[in-house]
Write a structure and sequence with these properties.
The structure is a homodimer.
Chain A lengths: L14 H5 L4 H17 L10 E2 L14 H11 L11 H13 L14 H14 L10 E4 L2 H12 L12 E7 L3 H10 L2 E6 L11 H11 L4 E8 L11 H14 L2 E5 L16 H7 L2 H4 L4 E6 L13 E6 L3 H6 L1 H7 L4 H11 L9 H27 L4 E2 L8 E2 L2 E2 L3 H9 L4 H13 L1 E2 L1 E2 L10 E6 L4 H21 L2
Helix pairs in contact in A: 2-17, 3-4, 3-14, 5-14, 6-7, 8-9, 15-18, 16-17
The complex binds pyridoxal-5'-phosphate (PLP) (2 copies).
The site of one pyridoxal-5'-phosphate (PLP) has 13 residues of chain A, from α6.
């Protein structure tokens, strides 16, 4: 054997892997897992169980899956159940329809852009949602989750990763704060990150077009600002855009020649008083052909969120608006090789998008489950705001939609120093202490980004109400102690 | 509105999308789909239905899913079924175990590398398969299918895509013929493709180490040969490597310092007389520490093939052997952001890997279904060989495993000219004519690669026996007519 050298070493691994920074949340999750194992082994702790409040995984938080979706899927996996009288009529009917549309089995590969039936029924959902604005099924691309959808889009749109931050680099406007997966995907694609700040005061993390303007202007020369990423309703902010705000953004994108990449996965979860979800597509169409015939838009959605909350199925979709036909045909191979939506996931998604109709046997249960989704988000949001408002040094903007809120935490200067000596960010230091002492894992805000010197944590609104209550009580006690210790 | 220019145009789209060439099979599939629609609309055709024989999708070919897997999945999706007496005891037991391991619901996100339980049980499967060779669950990475696994690996291993085919380009040895997805993934990653030819005569597409040697030697200077991709059992060849052949390849990889990327998705489907599947991992370990402590290997497998044939679940895994610990820790973010294995798919996979035991209620059915998988592949292989051997101008090497065979077709020189004027490859011209006249879609060989001037088609061995028989009869008639027409 002549060669002693390894092939895959730190030096030889793709530079793309080097670009990806680890998340602080991963350290927190790892520690939560260790604590859980210690408790199992009988190690004494000041708490009985570890509670995770950082993630957006509804079912992991204890939310019950939607009965109709699960019944339909059970029958699709095991069609013998169509003979059973355990399943309601409309479930059987739906399952039969789905099976017919995938050649009789959920075990087949899907077409490149998804099953034709699923494309059609996603389009039908969008038309109904948008009050009749037309949607062509050919513009619907199914993907293995909406995160994958975002990655695929970035990899198409970032065309000059080679030149780093030179004037030819593809600039992507990214909100602060923002889901970490999007920032990672952008690092991986090699685009230039152009952070725009959401308003950390006033109503709730509003988007200010002047801020977009500032970012684009100062970016020109360093890179080519090309893509504007919007997340509405917002994670982790809980913000829901008004029609006026959306119109402003569209006008801005049009005048600056920006591609709109709109992440609308929380569209079913708007609970703020007087707020309603409006899709960018709908608003764009209602602004007339001057805009609707030209502004390029890709909107993404997912089976993971909303009432369904089926994170494990990994299915989402893109709707393209004004996609260049040549790009469409060129990129077919790219999507074919990469979108790879699971067939089972597509069936979950399309079932989630079409609820049973009034009069059908599953209508009542579905309606209840869906109302309970919204009402528990809304009750939890009220509880969080009320509880945190009581705590000196914590300030939260009242969420209007989505699964999260993003309170600002005052962290004493001594902590900032101490964290630094330990090589931790102040927010991670805070979260790890809270976890260690109270067994509660909240998300360290710096994974999401923040203004210099401001610190945050992310909390989801998905826990059962009583559990959330006790988490908030723990947070209050912890925060007071912690502040005292370091003052 | 100042800007009239589109953002996402052919000029602006990522160069990666430009690199990906379309597949000829896609044209064939599109035409098959059109024909199907024409028939539905009542257009008269010389055939009653369109039969596709090109794909590797067992259930789309009519294979019945494995009862045990489907029953377990139905119960995981709808746990109320655990109360029903429609499901056997061992099914319920298994489903309960799975549910426990994913926090009670298949609707949750999975951990970065997959559910811990799934990692453990994949490792247990590998140890049993390899006669006790140890497997550390920490080396098992679950992915959204084995195609995704291969893409992820290539994107890690190809570290110098920037320099094209310069001396610093990462060279990847790829068999000819080879699954098109792998060649596409390599184009996308930007590696330098180094084709090595499998032996198109003798027993069945054997791998010759001298050929590997020739390729590596002539590549040095143009690029850095770094990765050797092996597909055993082979698609589309049907070849199954012997222990001796695997040992030779491992010795070669060791002496040349190549990373072994081994695709073993057809491991459960070996039917050739005197042939058995041996994993590279097992052979490597049995060659002793001189090799087993140093040769770097990543082996991939999938729920899509074998008895399970669950293509729609999109789940596969990588086993790493001798992965550099620094690379392992660096690449955690990369895998976390990209592998995204569906939770439901992981449950399908792990169920497929662990059959019911003797004495359990589902044992008999499983055993029957599993035997019928192998015996029908074997019967179909014999039928194909016998039928094609009769046809002058067609020659097939007898497949020993996997789902395919890859007959060589003599295409008259006149056809080659005619195809050229139409802008088609000769094999696609042949396949389209066969489809048009007989309603049968076989795979155009040039998607898989071939020696200059030799033409092939790919046939799967998955059709019901009688249907395959009539397909082969059609092929005989077509081939004779076609040859006469163009002679
Ligand atoms: C804003 C946003 N977009 C996309 C996703 C990804 O969802 P998935 O990939 O499960 O569809 C998430 C996940 O939490 C999210 O918060
Ligand atoms: C050799 C080989 N590897 C991998 C795959 C991909 O399988 P999947 O992505 O469904 O796991 C295929 C599919 O046909 C194949 O033939």
């Amino acid at each position: 054997m002549t060669s002693l050298k390894k092939v895959l070493t730190l030096k030889e691994v793709s530079p793309m892997a080097h670009r990806l920074t680890g998340l602080k949340t991963d350290l927190l999750i790892a520690r939560a897992e260790e604590l859980r194992k210690e408790i199992k082994q009988g190690v004494k702790k000041p708490f009985k169980e570890v509670i995770e409040v950082h993630s957006g995984d509804g079912q992991a938080m204890g939310t019950k899956p939607v009965t109709f979706i699960r019944q339909v899927m059970a029958a699709c996996f095991y069609p013998e159940l169509l003979q059973s009288d355990r399943l309601p009529r409309d479930v059987k009917f739906r399952a039969q329809e789905l099976l017919q549309q995938c050649g009789g089995s959920v075990g087949v590969y899907s077409d490149t852009f998804g099953l034709e039936y699923v494309q059609h029924n996603v389009a039908r959902f969008i038309e109904e949602r948008d009050g009749g604005v037309p949607c062509d099924p050919q513009n619907i691309y199914l993907t293995a989750g909406s995160q994958k959808a975002g990655q695929l889009l970035l990899n198409l749109l970032v065309h000059t990763s080679g030149c780093g931050s030179g004037p030819c680099g593809t600039g992507v406007l990214v909100p602060v704060p923002c889901s970490p997966w999007f920032s990672l995907a952008l690092q991986e694609a090699g685009g230039v990150r152009l952070p725009y700040f959401l308003a950390d005061q006033g109503v709730c993390w509003e988007l200010d077009v002047q801020e977009l303007q500032r970012v684009v202007q100062s970016a020109r020369g360093h890179c080519t600002p090309s893509v504007l990423y919007i997340n509405n309703p917002g994670n982790p902010t809980g913000h829901v855009q008004s029609r006026q705000s959306i119109e402003e953004v569209i006008r801005f994108a049009a005048s600056e020649g920006l591609y709109l990449l709109v992440d609308e996965v929380y569209q079913d979860s708007v609970f703020g008083q007087g707020r309603a979800f409006l899709s960018y597509k709908k608003v764009l169409y209602e602004m007339g052909p001057e805009f609707s015939s030209r502004v390029e838009l890709a909107a993404i959605h997912s089976a993971s969120k909303g009432v369904a909350g089926e994170c494990g199925s990994r299915c989402g979709f893109i709707e393209f608006v004004n996609l260049d036909p040549q790009v469409k045909s060129l990129s077919a191979s790219y999507f074919s090789a990469n979108s790879l939506p699971p067939t089972s996931g597509q069936l979950v998604l399309v079932t989630a998008l079409h609820s049973p109709r009034a009069g059908e046997p599953s209508y009542y249960t579905w309606t209840q489950e869906s109302q309970s989704h919204l009402s528990s988000l809304s009750r939890n949001a009220a509880l969080v705001v009320e509880s945190l408002d009581r705590i000196p040094g914590i300030r939260v903007l009242s969420p209007q939609g989505g699964f999260f809120c993003f309170p600002r935490i005052h962290i004493p200067p001594l902590v900032v120093q101490e964290a630094e000596t330990q090589g931790l960010s102040p927010d991670l230091f805070y979260c790890l202490r809270f976890l260690e002492e109270w067994g509660v894992a909240v998300g360290p805000g710096s994974d999401f980004g923040a203004r210099e010197g401001s610190h945050h944590i992310r909390l989801n609104l998905l826990l059962p109400h009583d559990k959330l209550k006790s988490v908030l009580e723990s947070l209050e006690k912890f925060h007071l102690q912690f502040t005292e210790e370091f003052s």
